[in-house]
Every structure is written in C-alpha cells, then in structure tokens.
Amino acid sequence: MKNVDNLRRQSEEQQQKMYACWLDTIYWLPSETKFRLLDAAGSVRDVYYMTDRQLTALIGSKGCEQILQQRKRYEPQRVWDYVSGLGISYTYCRTSDFPQKLKNIPNPPFGIFYKGKLPDEKIPAVAMIGARKCSEYGKCMAESFATKLASQGISIISGMALGIDGISQRAALTAGGCSYGVLGCGVDVVYPRSNEPLYRQLLEKGGVISEYPPGMEPRPILFPPRNRIISALADVVLVVEARKKSGTLITVDMALEQGREVYAIPGRCTDGLSMGCNELLRQGAAIATDPEDIIHDMAWEELTDNTMETGLEQKRKSKSNDNSLSPMAQEIIRQLDVLPVTQDFLIRKLRESGSICGMPQICQGLVELELKGLALRQNGQYCLSPDAALNR
Amino acid sequence: MYSRVITGAINGIESVIATVEVDSSKGLPVFEMVGQLNNEVREAKERVRVALKNASIDIPPMRITVSISPAEMRKEGASYDLPIAIGMLVSMGMIPEEGIRNTLIVGELGLNGEVRTVKGVLPIVQRAKLENVKRCIVPKANVREGAIIDGIEIIGVTDLMETITYLREVEERKAQRIAPARQTQMDNLEEIDADVDFADINGQEAVKRAVEVAAAGFHHILMIGPPGSGKTMIAKRIPTILPDLSMDESLEVSTIYSVAGQLDDKKALITKRPFLDPHHTISEQALAGGGRIPKPGVISLAHRGVLFMDELPEYRRNTLEILRQPLEDKRIHIARTYGSFVYPADFMLVAAMNPCPCGYFPDRDKCSCSEVEVKKYLSRISGPILDRIDVMTEAPRVDIRQLSADMRNESSAKIKARVMEARERQKSRYKGTRYRFNAELGAGDIKEYCRLGDKEQEMMEEAFTRMNLSARAYHKIIKVARTIADLDQKQNISTEHLGEAICYRMNDNRYYL
C-alpha cells in the first residue's frame, strides 16, 4: 500500500514538473510572477487551467496574454518531451531534488534546467569568479586555488565564461574534482564557443545549470541574474581578480544578500585587475591567501576528502625526489614566482646575485624545470607551475 | 649584304645568346624587323636611324631586314639597339666583318648616339663566356658588372661613334683604343653600412641569442613583442652578423640584381647579403615577381639574404601564402602566358609581430584586447607558414633603466665571428651535398647528420609527450640544436643544446593561452 502511494506521489510530482517546465519556458515572465501564480493556484497544473479572469486579476492583462499564447502554442507534454529529448533535466522549487540553497535567497529562481548532475548539497562548494580578461597572476591563482580546493573534494561553481571562470573550472576538473557551470543562456547553448571542450567535460564530471529555457541565446541582460544562482549554489564566493568596476562585484553583492561568505585574493595595489579585490578586502571581505585558510575558516576539514590530496602530494614528492635539479635550474627556480617573468629579467636577477651565466644556460635551465613540471611557459614568459608554487 | 651580330637576351633570370641578323639589299627603302619583338624592341628602328644620322653616318636608301633569333623567344628591352646599328653598318660594309667576330654587343642607343645602360649584363656575360665568346661590348655604365666574370674581354663604350671606331681598329691595336676592364677594380664597391651594430642594443638578451642561432644555421625566425621593444632594430642588424657571401653566392645574387636592373657603376657586384624589408602593403606580384615576363620579386632579391617582414599579421593573407612554396623549395615558379619562369628565393625569413591588435598582451594593464581578438590576430598567419619557422622568440618590453643604462654590449663583429665558425663547421660537414646550412636539412637526413645519444633521445621523448610536440616541431628542435652545437663547437648534440633549442620552439596548435 505504501509502495503504491509512493509511486503515485512520484508520478504526481512528475506531472507537476511537466507543467512547471511548461510554465518556465515562458522566459519573459519573471520568476516572481510565476511564484505568485503558483501560490494562488496551489499547484502548477492548476496554473495551467486558470481562467483568463483569474490570470488577469493576478498578473495583469499582459502576463495573462502571454500565458494564453503559450497555452495555445504548446502542450505541456510536448514541451516536456522536447526538453527531455535534448537530454536536459528540469526541476522546480516544489520538488525534492530542487537545491535547497536556491530556495532561501531573495528572488529565487522558479525552476532550473540542467544537464549532467545537480550539485550534491552535502558537499561544500566554492564559487570562483573574476574578470574575463584576467592577468597572468589571476590565471595562476585561479588555477592553484581551484586545483587545491577541487582535489580536496570541494565543488567549484562558476559561470563557464572566458578568463577566471573557465580557468578555475578547467583546473578543478583536471585535478579530478567536480565543477558546475551556471550559464546565462540555455543549457544546450555553448557560450563562449571556445569553451566547448570545458562544456563537454562539465557534462561528464559535473553539470551545467541555467534558469533559462533550452535554446536561449546569450544576451547581456541575462548574465547578471544568473550570478545570483552562482553565489546561491556556493557556500563561499571567492573573488580571484576583479577591476574596480566589474560585473564580478554584482555577484559579490548578491552573495552578501544571500548570506554567503565572501573571500578575495589580494593583489598589488597598483594592479588595475586587483583593485576590485583589494577594495572588497578593505570593506571587510575575508582574505584568501591559501586554499587551506578557507577550508579551515569554514570548518570543512571533516567534510573534505583528504585521501585525494595525499595521493597528489605523493605524486609531487616522487617527482621532485627522483630527479635532482642541476645547479643552474636550482638557481633559476629560486628566482621564479607565480608571476611570469622574461628570460631577460631572470638573467639580470641572476647576474645581480653574482652568478655568471649566459642566455643558453638560462634556456637550458628553464627547459629542465619545464620538463620536470616545476615551471610553466606562458606567452613566452616563465613562471612557477601552480604545483611547485603551492609546494613551496 | 648580310651580317650577323651576337647579343644577349634575358629570359627570366636565364640568359641566352641571341643573334641579330641584318640584310641590306637594293629595293624600296624599307626598314623591316622580325623575331617576336616587343614594342620597345620595335622602336629600336627609330632610335637606330636617328642615332646613326646624328653620328653623321648616312644610310643609303635600301631595303633593310633585321631578324633577331631565336625567333620563338619573345624579345624585350632596348638592349638590341646597339647590335642592330652595328649589324646595319657591317651589312653595308662600313665596318669590316672581322671587327665583330666573336664579339657580343649589347646597349641601348640615345638619339644623340650615346650608349645607355641596360639590364642583365652580368648573366649575359656569364652566358657569353660559356659559349666561348671572346669579347663583350657593353655600355660603359655596365662595364664593372660585366668585368666580374673572368676570362672574357669586357669593353665599355660611351657612344656609337666610339664603338664604330673601336670595331674598325685592327685586332692588335684594339686594346690600345679601349682597354678591357679588369676585375681587380671591383673590390669594395659597396658602401659598408657602419651605422648599425648589435652593440647599440641594450637588453633583449634572449632575442639577441635567438637571432645569433638563427643566423648561424640560416633558420627562419619569428620575433613577438610589444611595440617599441626593439624587434625592428634587431632585425636591421641581422645582416651584420650573417656569414659573408661566397663568390659563387655573390654571383648568384648579383645576377638577380642585374636582371632586375639594380646594378650600376657604383654597385656592380653584390658582396653583402641582401636585406629587404617590404612594407606590409606589398602586392603579391611585387613579392613573388610580376609582369608579363616577370621581374624578380622581393623574395628573389632577398636570395641568400634576409627578408624582413615587420608586422607579419598585417600582410594580406594571400600575400603571405605566396611564401609557402619558396620557404619549402627555396625558389619560386611563376607561370605566365609566355612561359614558366623559375627564380631562386633562398632567403632567411625574419618576421616580427605584436602579440595582439593593440600590441601589449599579456600585459593586462595596457592591453584591452579580448581573448578572442588575441587568438584571431595570431591566426592571421596560417599554420603552414608558422610550420616553416624554426626559431621563435619573445621580445619583452624593455624598461627605461635598461635603455638608459650604459651597458657594454657585444659588437656585431664578435657575434659574427662565432657565426662564421659555426658556418665553417656546417660547410665541412655538408661537403659534397646540396646542403649549406642546418636549416635546409630534410627529415631523412636529420637522422644522418644530427645523431642523438641515448640521454638526448630520452630527453626528446620526454619533451615530446610533456609539451605535446608535433613531428614537425620535433625535427625543427633537432635542427636548431644542431646549430647550437655548431656554435658551441661541439661534434655531438648534447642535452644542453637540445634544452636551448626546445626553448625556441613554437607552441603548435595555439600560441597564447
């Protein structure tokens, strides 16, 4: 008897989902309005069967017309079949699988479309956000933070955009972690196109999420609202790099409204791209100089998975142990930092510190470090690899 | 009466011996010219007639027929004026036939009878020597050019009258009238540009070293850096460290310049490696060689020298794509209605470019280009072109302290000495093969000339997997390592050489990010 009840409840939930999906594909209707309709009608199915008069009274004639149009154009079953045919899942606020974290925020989304998985809410999540046009420093910090956090089992949430977003997510996935992308377009639309490989990886090892219906093309106006979902899904918002006037700061405002912790990675006070972060720090954001700090502050030690980390550590140790570096490489690595420097800079530094070396030796040393995974070449300049930097 | 004068003709950069036959017989006064002649050759008729008149030579009214052979070749240029005039005089008996025996004549005539300079004297004289011609009569202005070739008499003439008197002279006294030009007069004709020297460049050590390597092995090189980082300055100094031209090479280059009409009295032999820096608006024809009968283009004029392409992505795509074949085959085929021409184009490509449209990437404080823009800018240069560039180097922004610092930099002479030593090593290694420089090595011969030891092989394998290298990049690295070993005066390539060579690699699929 209980089983039958269960089944019935499930199919009922499924039915409601179908109607919710139908309602949610009217994307020009704000989610607020959808909530009002739901509250008045009691269930989404009842919203579908509301009369013109009821609708007009609730949401005005314009909204009523839109719903009528949608009713005329598409059957809920057809919408549902179409969406699931694309391999897209849907969930809305009244179902059990809808993320709790999205419910208790100002202006919550009515429902979300997703591909892949939804984040497991028991696992801590960090939203890593920052400038699209990031500097090498930002890139490096994003990589090292994302790698470390993800390798401890923390999910990385971001917007799959160019720059910091994509870099963090890519690094998290490479480290074997989990990452979720919240898009400003339909979940079946890959934007920007150059992130196609990342998108595919996300589907495999995480998910992409959007409150916009499938097929929705990206528009500038769609992006700020999705930022609230990024911060809402996370426990901590980490700002890697931002200009003083940056879209990233919108996300920070939303995170504060939602009661999420805000961390910022400090930069040099003269760097345009760090001014946003430094300003946040001045206003009282927490300072993030080491991923461990965040884990410690949030008391996540219990929740995080240390086994992966030790595996990584071991790999690193074996790497640095079995190959001892040549004296030249040792001298070079002492001068290297996460900020990329040119060969000319290195040779000057080394000469200042009294070593006699020529360009050929510098080149050889750098390639040796590169082959051992300790240095990276970026745009013709060299820096410490995130691995080596965190191991210092 | 009939007469026959030998002259030279240029076809592409090849030269052939042509004959001007003149027949003057009784009949209505007609001047007829045959033999696939271009307009300028046809006009010779008028120039010759007036020049003879102004030299106070009366042409009796006769039927004159001029035929220039080989008839199947299209004739161009005004160099037939003088042989036609002489041919006429011989056919009318005004110059004895012995006077022109075994003598090649070229020259353009002015209406006043003066003999003017012509193009291509050098290849014509070269050809004449092969055909056992004894003497060449050339315009005075071209005499030094012709005199480069040994074992043939070069007589420079200034006007028609002088030529006639010379030819009328008996053989024994000819040398007294006009002495054959001698080759010893040729030395050091080119002004040496002492203004530029590598010592002028502060900083940019990495680029300087890369350039040294490239020059030693004649590798193509690409410099990437923000505006004002000294890329152009360095490129302009590359000729000062390149190995000297050998006599053979010098002749080859001079031949091209001769055909292009760029040799004169002051610059008769190209003794320095050419340096050409075409502006990026250059047309395809100007780069490859153009015209109905193509003239050598910039890439051929840069033969055995440097072709410097500044702001590489700004060149039109089609123009750049032209470089593909020459970079591979070291010459260019041009097909036109009148036939197909082959010009040598064995140059060292020195290219410079900014990393992005604004020029400052990755300095995010200055650069406002989006990632897409950066990628788009770089993708303007097609893969096949980048594939052929062996050495890639970054020219970072130089800070002001370095610029103003009074540093003692290495002079070009010092660098050149090292380059020359490396050149000698290559010369002895490639003796008896078609190779001259390491850069030319084909994939098959790399194994023979660039043997790697076990340790080196291991390093290459590691680099191959870790850095995601392509097969082509693999070969490029080994070739460059060979050059570095030559600079180091080492017989074998060691891991140090490979290490440095890897540093100059190009990231294959994407350069930035």
Q: Helices, strands, pairings?
A:
The complex is a heterodimer of chains A (392) and B (513).
Chain A: H1 2-24, H2 31-41, H3 44-48, H4 52-73, H5 76-85, E1 89-92, E2 111-116, E3 125-130, H6 136-151, E4 155-158, H7 164-174, E5 179-182, H8 196-205, E6 207-210, H9 223-233, E7 236-241, H10 248-257, E8 261-264, H11 275-282, E9 286-287, H12 291-297, H13 306-322, H14 327-335, H15 343-352, H16 359-371, E10 375-378, E11 381-384, H17 386-390
Parallel strand pairs in A: 3-4, 3-7, 4-5, 5-6, 7-8, 8-9
Antiparallel strand pairs in A: 1-2, 2-6, 10-11
Helix pairs in contact in A: 1-5, 6-7, 7-8, 9-10, 14-16
Chain B: E1 2-11, E2 14-25, E3 30-34, H1 39-42, H2 44-54, E4 63-69, H3 81-91, E5 103-105, E6 108-109, E7 115-116, H4 121-130, E8 135-139, H5 143-147, E9 153-157, H6 160-168, H7 171-177, H8 205-217, E10 221-224, H9 231-237, H10 247-259, E11 275-276, H11 284-288, H12 298-301, E12 306-309, H13 317-321, H14 324-329, E13 331-336, E14 339-344, E15 348-353, H15 371-378, H16 383-387, E16 391-394, H17 400-404, H18 412-429, H19 443-449, H20 454-467, H21 471-487, H22 495-503
Parallel strand pairs in B: 3-4, 5-8, 8-9, 10-15, 10-16, 11-12, 12-15
Antiparallel strand pairs in B: 1-2, 2-4, 6-7, 13-14
